[in-house]
Amino acid sequence: MEAVPARTRVYVACVVVAAVLCLLPLPGVRAPWWAVALLAALYAGCERVARSRFVGISHPAGTFYPVLLAGAFLLPAPAAALVAVPGALLSHVAQRPVALRRLWRAAQLVIGVWAAARVHWLLGGRDAVVAGDVPYALGPAGAAVLAFCLVLAVLDGGILAVAERVPVRRAWRGLVARSLAPIAVHGLAGLMMAVLWRSPYGPVAALLVLLPMCVSWWAFAQYHRERAAHQATIRALVQAVDIKDGYTRGHSERVGQASMMIARELGMDDERIEVLRFAGILHDVGKLGVPTRLLRKNGPLTPEERRVIELHPEYGHEMVRGIGFLGEARAAVLHHHERLDGSGYPYGLVGRQIPESARVVAVADAFDAMTSTRCYSRARPVPVALAELERCAGSQFDPEMVTALVGAVERAGWRPAVTADDTEDLGGQANGSGPGGRHGQGDRTGRGGQGQGGQSDRHARGDRAGRQGQGAQDAEGGQGSQDGRSGQGDRAGRHGEGGQGGDGARVVPGPGSGPGASVSGAPGARR
Q: Has this prediction a pTM greater than 0.70?
């Protein structure tokens, strides 16, 4: 619990206090306590089954809301709220801190059920349930379900704003819209349970209402199993890429994370954020179609080899185009090397011709390449990487995506990771020395063959020239010599002076650099 920020603990404590206040009138409440105990046991049992290893999934939205809402339609508000407590406190929690999460879940449900029961009581729903007047009972029940949904949404938005520091204007966006429809279905089932409970057939008939809910829940579980299988397939593909091109190990996962950060900053919905995460993870899957000898080649690439490397987006698209749930992620795999100025590949698309998902992944890709520590070069500081992205916005990167990443990183931070195991002391290689310090990390540029200090991302194993103060590299077609220790040098590439970095930031002359020297730290196609 000590890892939980103090503001989060205070927020949860306030919600728990509010829940206790909802339960305080219990000693003076006249209620059928046997019914309270039966509903509480039923809810607790259902939750345990739903979150068990046997089932294999955890339904975070509450699998058996019908039981809770039936209690809200049958019982006084404090007694109805009590139904949720045992199930919430005994439910399986996968993440730590377990106790705090259970308290939060119990308090949230207590307040939600209490509010639903109060609204239902005030609108006269209890009399309609007792009389079995279903048409009349629909109105109060609908209002109670809406109250339940609103309470959960307000509390969930609050925890997002406080614990995860999601901006207030976005914390509650879409919460009610996403949860109202499924909770309304649960509310209808709960109403049927309540009406049958009060009928001559009694509680046994009411329990039969849960059977179709169990069937629908089982179908939901199958969907999640299928989705888990899809994600396992994606992980296998990424692991295959990491094994084949070990010097960028972990890069795909971090690009997926950065893509999510950009998407959230742009206010995209959760489903699209997940698709963009897949796009970032899979953006380099086409490397599986590139000969390993090219990915690990120590010397410069020939023009023919460069053309083979530039085919990896198309290879990747061919691999994933039959996976329907990826959606627009497939376009990102194909077009993440395109540039706004039209000098990218594979098709040289310009501006808004490039799919939005590809523009997101391109920025995330370049940012991680510049901020990751690898076995042959140290990471650039995050502010330097962001400055490079801003410098290249409008020519290589979409300014909107760059601005979104800058905002997300400033708010949430970024923790670059080591992507190879054998890190070494690189002396002055990583960030250079003297005027060329910003150019010290050598990265393989894209179609334009401009050079920069240090060594090529592409040729880590061969030209470890930064340590020796010199090195040669090929930037997917451009060749030249450079001094890794000073970060100076000039290279001739396909586009000559001021050419383009493959995945990364734009190549522009910088202080302490010769003509065409790169100030970007963005690697090229190897990423």
A: no
